[in-house]
Design goal:
Layout: E1 2-8, H1 11-26, E2 30-31, E3 40-45, H2 50-62, E4 72-76, H3 78-82, E5 92-94, H4 102-105, E6 112-114, E7 133-137, E8 139-140, H5 151-155, E9 159-160, H6 163-173, E10 180-184, E11 192-193, E12 196-197, H7 198-208, E13 213-217, H8 226-234, E14 241-243, H9 251-257, H10 263-276, E15 281-288, H11 295-308, E16 312-317, H12 334-357, E17 363-371, E18 378-382, E19 388-392, E20 400-409, E21 412-417
Parallel strand pairs: 1-2, 1-3, 3-4, 4-5, 5-6, 7-10, 10-13, 14-15, 15-16, 19-21
Antiparallel strand pairs: 8-9, 11-12, 17-18, 17-20, 18-19, 20-21
Bound molecules: iron/sulfur cluster.
Iron/sulfur cluster binds near residues 144, 145 and 220.
C-alpha cells in the first residue's frame, strides 16, 4: 500500500514520522509524496499549542476532495491523544506509543482508537531517515507537569532509552549526508538510564560520533547545570548553542507554572553559561498572557529579554490546553495577550538583528544543508550557533566549510569560503 505522511509540529513529531516511515517500509509499504495516490494518510500533529492543532485539523478537513475514494485517514501523535472531538471522516486516532504496530493497526477493521500512553514508546530499533540533521529521541514523556502544558498527558511518563540502543540507532541511521546528531527529549537533563545521566551519555555520544556535530533539545532550566556547561565547552563537536526556555520572568507566574525555578535562578545559570562559553548562542521559549499575568509580571519577562539578549526566541501567547491545570484558570484578555506578544516580538527581533550584525567579519564553520532556493549558485547551512547562513558557492551537502561573514542581508548572514 502507498502511504502519505503530513507532519505538523516540532522535532519530536518529525522524529516520529521518520519512525513510521521505517516501520511501514519494513512491511513493504511505500511512501507517496502526493496525497492523491495514497491509500493510507497519516496526519502527525502536535497539540502543545492551539495554533499547531488548528493547522493539522484544517489539513484533515481540506483534503477530502483530493484523496482516493477508499483512502484511510489516521490522525496520529500527540494531536490524536489530545482531541476530544475529531473530524468524522477519519478512520482512527493513534497515540505516540503504538507506532511499532502501525502496519497491523492500519489493517484493523472499523474505527481505531489507540490513544493510551501506557506503551514504552521506544523506537530505537527504527532506522531514521535524515538529510544532514539526524533527529534521535533518547527518551520519551515528561514527569514535570508544568501547569500550562499538555505533553505529560499525551506522551506519558518519562522513560529513558538504553545508551546501547541509542548508539545502535545512530549507527544504523547515519548516511553520507549526515552532518549532525540532534538528541531529543522533552527534558534531556532528566535522562536517567539505570543511573547513567545525560552528561555521561552526551560525552559518550560525542566520543563515539566524533566526526559529527552534536546538539540536544530541550533543556529544562531547573536541571541545567555547570557540569553540562563544562562538557559543552570541552567537547569540540558539541555545538555552542543552548536552548533554555524561560517562559516567564515573573516569579509569581513561574510558581503558578510549576517551573521549579525563579527569575534569579534562571539568570544565574545564563551568566554561568556566558562566562564559561564565551561565544555561546542562547535561544529560548517565552509566552505572554499566562492567567493572572499583570503588566508588572510582563515587565519582569521583558527584563529577562533585555538582560540575556537571546540570539533567538520562540514567542507565543498562552492558549488553554485540555487536561492541563492552567486550562481551568481564567484566561487573560486576548487583546492584552496579543499586545504584549507584539511588543515582546518587536524587542526580541531587534536584539536578534543587533546580535546578527556582530557576526560581520567573523569566521564561522558552516554545515552545508542544501542549495539555496533563491540563488542556484549558493548554499544554505548552519553555523555552530545554529544560525542559518547563506554561503556563496556550491559545496557538498553534509560538509563543514570555514567561511567569513561578509554582510548581513535582512536577518541572514552571507559568507564566503575562507581559504585554509
Ligand atoms: S518540561 Fe514542562 S513544558 Fe516541557 S514538556 Fe514537560 S511539562 Fe511540558
Amino acid at each position: 500500500m502507498k502511504f502519505f505522511i503530513a507532519t505538523y509540529g516540532c522535532q519530536m513529531n518529525k522524529y516520529d514520522s521518520n519512525v513510521i516511515r521505517d516501520y511501514m517500509g519494513m512491511r513493504d509499504h511505500t511512501e507517496s509524496y502526493t496525497i492523491d495516490d495514497a491509500d493510507i494518510i497519516f496526519v502527525n500533529g502536535c497539540s502543545v499549542r492551539e495554533h499547531a492543532e488548528k493547522r493539522a485539523i484544517g489539513f484533515v478537513n481540506s483534503m477530502k476532495s483530493q484523496i482516493k475514494k477508499n483512502a484511510r485517514i489516521y490522525i496520529i501523535g500527540c494531536l490524536a491523544t489530545a482531541l476530544k472531538e475529531y473530524p468524522k471522516h477519519i478512520n482512527g486516532l493513534i497515540g505516540t506509543t503504538h507506532y511499532d504496530r502501525i502496519s497491523d493497526i492500519i489493517n484493523m477493521n472499523g474505527f481505531v482508537d489507540m490513544r493510551d500512553t501506557e506503551g514504552e514508546g521506544n523506537y530505537t530499533n527504527a532506522r531514521i531517515r535524515n538529510n544532514v540533521s539526524l533527529f534521535i529521541s533518547i527518551m520519551k514523556g515528561c514527569n514535570n507537569f508544568c501547569s500550562y502544558c499538555i505533553v505529560p498527558y499525551l506522551r506519558g511518563k518519562e522513560i529513558s532509552f538504553s545508551p546501547d540502543s541509542i548508539f545502535k540507532q545512530i549507527e544504523s541511521s547515519i548516511n553520507t549526508k549526515t552532518g549532525e546528531i540532534l538528541l531529543l527529549g522533552q527534558n534531556v537533563n532528566s535522562y536517567n538510564y539505570r543511573g547513567k545521566r545525560f552528561p555521561e551519555l552526551l560525552i559518550e555520544i560525542a566520543n563515539i560520533f566524533k566526526n559529527y556535530r552534536i546538539r540536544f533539545l530541550t533543556s529544562h532550566p531547573k536541571d541545567f547545570n555547570e557540569l553540562l556547561i563544562r562538557i559543552i565547552a570541552d567537547k569540540e563537536n558539541i555545538m555552542n548553542s543552548v536552548h533554555l526556555p524561560f517562559q516567564s520572568g515573573s516569579d509569581k507566574i513561574l510558581k503558578m507554572m510549576h517551573r521549579g525555578y525563579l527569575q534569579t535562578d534562571y539568570l544565574k545559570k545564563i551568566n554561568m553559561l556566558k562566562q564559561i562559553i564565551k561565544d555561546v548562542a542562547i535561544t529560548t521559549d517565552v509566552m505572554t498572557g499566562f492567567p493572572f499575568e499583570t503588566e508588572h509580571d510582563f515587565n519582569e519577562t521583558m527584563k529577562v529579554i533585555l538582560e540575556v539578549r537571546f540570539d533567538d526566541a520562540f514567542m507565543y501567547k498562552f492558549s488553554k490546553r485540555n487536561y492541563s491545570l492552567a486550562g481551568f484558570m481564567n484566561d487573560a484578555d486576548e487583546n492584552i495577550k496579543l499586545r504584549r506578544l507584539k511588543h515582546l516580538i518587536k524587542i526580541q527581533n531587534s536584539i536578534k538583528i543587533e546580535k546578527m550584525a556582530t557576526l560581520k567579519g567573523k569566521t564561522v564553520k558552516v554545515l552545508i544543508e542544501r542549495k539555496s532556493k533563491k540563488s542556484e549558485n549558493d548554499c544554505i547551512g548552519r553555523d555552530e550557533g545554529d544560525r542559518m547562513i547563506v554561503i556563496k558557492g556550491l559545496f557538498d551537502i553534509g560538509t563543514v566549510i570555514k567561511a567569513e561573514v561578509i554582510e548581513i542581508k535582512g536577518n541572514t548572514p552571507i559568507a564566503i569560503k575562507k581559504e585554509e
